[in-house]
Amino acid sequence: MNKVKQIFGGDVRQLGMIFALVALIAFFQWRTGGLTLKPENVINIFQGNSYILVMAIGMVLVIIAGHIDLSVGSVAAFVGITVAIAMRDWNLPWWGGILLGLAIGALVGAWQGFWVAVVGIPAFIVTLAGMLIFRGANQAVGHSLTIPVPKDFQYIGAGYLPEVGPDTGYNNLTVLLGVLLCAAIVGGTLWSRRNQAKIGAELEPGWIVGIRLGLICVAILAVFMLMASGRKGTSLPVSAIILGVLTLIYGFIATRTIVGRHVYAVGGNRAAAELSGVRSRRINFLVMMNMSVLAALGGMMFVARSTSSGPFDGVGWELDVIAAVFIGGAAVSGGVGTVVGSVIGGLVMAVLNNGLQLLGVGADQTQIYKGLVLLIAVAFDVYNKSQGRRSITGMLMKNFGGGGRATTEDTQGTAKQQA
Amino acid sequence: MSDNGMILEMIGITKTFPGVKALSDVNLSVRRGDVHAIVGENGAGKSTLMKVLSGVHPHGSYEGQIVLGGQPMEFRSIRDSERAGIAIIHQELALVPELSIAENIFLGNEETRHGAIDWVATNNRARELLARVGLREEPETPIKNIGVGKQQLVEIAKALSKEVKLLILDEPTAALNEEDSQHLLSLIRGLQGRGITSIMISHKLNEIEAIADAITIIRDGQTVETLDVREGAVDEDRIIRGMVGRSLESRFPDHTPNIGETFFEVHDWTVAHPDVPDRLVAKGSEFFVRRGEVVGFAGLMGSGRTELMRSLFGHSYGTFIKGRMTLNGKEVRLRSVPAAIDAGIAYVTEDRKVLGLNLLDDIKSTTVSAKLKKIARRFVINERAERIAAEDYRKALRTKAPSIDYGVAKLSGGNQQKVVLSKWLFTDPDLLILDEPTRGIDVGAKYEIYGIIQRLADEGKGVIVVSSELPELLGISDRIYTISEGRITGVLNRGDADQESLMRLMTETSTRARAAERAEAAEVVADIPDTTGTDGHVDDVPSEEKSA
Predict the structure, then answer these.
(1) How far apart are CA A43 and CA A355, in angstroms?
(2) Which of B309, B327, B345, B379 is the most exposed place for a label (fewest CB within 10 A)?
């Protein structure tokens, strides 16, 4: 048992959420008679939830800084409809539409960031207003109509990697990507191990690292092979790639850059951060603005998948996004949370949703279960904190080799959620 | 126990907090109808004693006995002590700004009829009470519309509404101007005539001299003595001697200063309170620091010492009005904290947990947090450099922790302070401002911190130490400035300063300043190098301040 603990990098309890995710998958796999892990279903889970997870990445930064953003659904819908109309009426190419959407997201974010950071109005109020304003803007711009988007734009939400090379029965690019990811994780781990050795930090025994890397690689390859073996023409969805890349980038920003440290500092103790030279207004502005940019991207991914933009897109999304972040271990009071944790939290919700659907459980009960999961996850965190233990996030990240925050081993987390 | 003319007797009170003995066998006897003053330095235990008396620290959490009107008392909460006729008025007023005067007076104690608030009775009774405290305001006026002085009177009216027998006032005049203070003091006198006994905590010795019937002096959690004014007048010098009369043991490392040239100067530094634009927290401050010098700043709580330092540190407090700052021979304008850090100034805050640390962080990320760019290349932090830096400072300051990955929240006060010092030393400052660097730290860790301060001075840095502990300042400073009411009231060289002379300058209020100026200027001026200006006293000219 002790060896098992060591392989997973500490106390087994610290794996709470990953085990929850695995257990959830196993449970549904059993109850649905194997439907859950069919290639089509795995692909479906990613395509159907990537946009929420992309927004969760932005939301976790907002929440770490001590704020909240209720407007993401409305902002996503406003951007979606505007981009759809722009592409229809001005014949914008698909990339022009994406750039326009991101630019609108940035403008909306600057607007909200201004009220939060410069004027000092609580983000709850600013984004509650934003929720109304941009919902209205969506319906005003689109005249409450549903507007289709062109085929090539749909690629970011519904596309797959193309078939390349010889017919192996698998999607070659997907398999290749999985192998590269494994190589990157192994390389990264060895590299950081060498660095740690240089500064004389305590090293884990080699065989433990070996087994851990082995398990991770097997998991990644299994999932990638699964997605590669689906119906001809399907493979790793583009939306999952976007999500993976963003998780990597934002995980890195949050943990390894000055701006990321400052976000944690502002959320942890704003007064102390300011007296340490952190420009907290700038940080607040940036996290709010970034959130809206990612909401814009999420909105476009959704529109691309559903092939059209409508007046009721994005209703209630903010709740799913915020739930993902809190299930992922962020603290309501700020200063705590991780990008990877939030993505995993979102995946827990996604698998739950999907599994219940497969079982034919109605929307009414599904919502009840989701609510309970959120409550239990956070209650578990609160209980652990009152016991002087780390939060789920802390436990989770410990497993990933870091302290309270994700580290270079973010890649592992990404692998997991691409899985 | 019989009633021997004493309304209150606190016998052998001992109160321990984890690791600190706040009160040790304290005795306090208050005669019925007296105004009884309690004096002592900051941290001497006055407030803790009052918290024991008022039930904030419930019975059972301390040792000793409280006897009120001949009856032993066991207060479990403030409600219990209120029921027994004790009311406490804190320095920070506990009024709700949005509610009316009458609503505040009866808050938690509402005048009701059939379960609904009886507004007629409420306002009528409030009017009566306001008349008793001499406050001419309508009961319906919202609290936020009246000044601090009047709010203080509302607090007293509130206490009277509860049939108070023993009124405790914690620094009642700290935030009041001269006129309001006088009014309040005469009101306290008036209450005496109505059979209400008052206990007053104050730093303003002139007020105590004027009003108190008996004075109890507390020092280091122990009662030193109780002076009975009826048995002979007690003057301020007598009180000061009692407050500071402790011997200086060898609590400080030996050190021979190596003082270089002046490299930091502040001229005419004037700052207003952030919320109250016409209240000045720093009034034309002038001082300088030399390389290798430890400069002390002595001032009581609320004297403006922290406000001055924070405004020097990138205008991080208050509204800057005027003033010049010279660093290394160049005049600098540091309008933001990052600018101040870049210029080589470090400020270690007074309140470690609230302003100094992110308690969610670990040692290593705290150590580098004030100058991340030092270990970053193009915004990307080099974690190896971070570990190395944190490890270096941990060793250099001998921070006791299992590793640099240990959370700062779990460290002891002394080790937390070392981490905060690491954080600021990491910024390579020329000038370190340490605000109460040893507050809440045990004696051993204090000694180590003093050693660090001296080492920094020997490296050629300038160190400013702000402290309300006079022995500490006398032990480590080469020169000491005193602050009172936002003014620098004097400067003494180490050899010329003692606790009494400092305390006199620290408690100097603006009215007394003019009278005392002539007498003291001559002796102070001799010690002041030319650069500080004319003399230790910076005159208070209210009309100019307002227009400035």
Answers:
(1) 14
(2) B379
